[in-house]
């Protein structure tokens, strides 16, 4: 799978909110997820190694949500072995007011799989 194909499939599945399918079909077993430093203040690990850890992080984040009001993933921009998307969501986390979140995700594709994801927000 080329970077362009991975980016297109990520975009398609993200807009359907099929996050587990994204991870199962596109991610390498040794994927690394990097969050910004401020993620630690929200109780999130800054670095997560391995597919199972990335899946667990996503499951925990979704479990903390009371309501996901909307979610969009922009068309990807592809350059070499990288692609980026803008992710936007309206969400209410348990015990918190509704909020708008916006982030840029950058993904590295090597040997047909996503080996790294890095988020900026």
From TrEMBL:
Known Pfam families for this protein?
A: SnoaL_5
Q: Which domain of life is it from?
A: Bacteria
Location of the SnoaL-like domain:
1-121
InterPro entries assigned: NTF2-like_dom_sf, SnoaL_5
Protein name, as recorded: SnoaL-like domain-containing protein
Lineage per the UniProt record: Bacteria, Pseudomonadati, Bacteroidota, Chitinophagia, Chitinophagales
